[in-house]
Amino acid sequence: MEVTRSGVKLHAEVTGPENGPPVVFANSLGTTLHLWDPILPHLPGGLRIIRYDKRGHGRSDVPDGPYTMGQLVSDAEAVCNAADVKDALFVGLSVGGMIAQGLAVKRPELIRALVLSNTAAKIGNPKLWQDRIDAVRTHGMTGIADNVMQRWFGRNFYGTPDMAPWQVMLQATPAEGYAGVCAAIAGTDFYTPTAGLRIPTLGIAGSEDRGTPPDLVRETIDLIPGAQFVLMRRVGHLPCVEAPEEYAAHLTSFMTVVGHI
Q: How far apart are CA 21 and CA 148, in angstroms?
């Protein structure tokens, strides 16, 4: 499915029955919608799965940056509208989790429950992200790849053959798109709006996540009354890659608890 918003074409994929419980996935910086491939075989049957590539990533357009979080949230909204999504479980990882928070505030009727994975209401600071943008512009995606891999993966996964396709995915990300989303993250502080959410929420953190450490994730999850929190051991920033069966089990359990399945 191609969705166009304000002249930007967004690539999305929708699978499963039209009347199935909808689950929308928003992936992290430097990845495509295929980030979620490892967990799909472990999810219950009958779900309507909606995945998409952020602007500047995968098969979506790469408009000139910098981007804003408002644009990324509106892109997600456009994908949900095009897929006729209502009362979805929205799963967002890293910047995808920031998008999830923004969309839940803007369009709460679209989302019946949230999964905020390896994310926070505010990630890093403007200098950190400007340094990342400068590194990409100077050295390209290949030049930053190993540093990113060390932030993404735990010590049991980093450097193994299984890591290789994820490094290829990162290196294939357009530098302009990567830098554009870095700028959006740098300008985002959702502490106040996220504290106003009253949506069933599950937080997921990885014990070896160097990008969004568990305490940072927990701090954000604690803003939302009644939210649940899960710490996955021996994984980093992308636990859906390192431990897909366990990650899918957490999603399935949460969907059951909130009555989504």
A: 34
What is the four-CA torsion angle of 112, 117, 122, 127, rounded to 10 degrees?
A: -150
Helices (H), 45-198: 69-82, 95-106, 126-152, 164-172, 175-186, 191-195
- Pull the structure tokens for residue 87: 């009362």
The C-alpha atoms of residue 226 and residue 234 are separated, in whole angstroms, by 26
Which tokens hold the place of 154?
């735990």
Which residue type does 82 have? A
**H/E run at residue 11:** strand 8-15
Give the burial class of 59: count Cβ atoms within 10 A of its Cβ; 0-12 exposed, 13-18 middle, 19 or more buried: middle
Residue with structure tokens 């969004």? 212
User: Which phi and psi (to 5°) does residue 82 adopt?
Assistant: -65, -30
Structure tokens at 94: 């890293």
Beta strand pairing call for 48-52 and 8-15: antiparallel
Q: Does this model's pTM top 0.70? A: yes
Alpha-carbon distance of 238 to 153, in angstroms, equals: 7
Q: Per the omega criterion (within 30 degrees of 0), is the bond before 66 cis?
A: yes
Segment 62-113, tens digit of pLDDT: 999 999 999 999 999 999 999 999 999 999 999 999 999 999 999 999 999 9
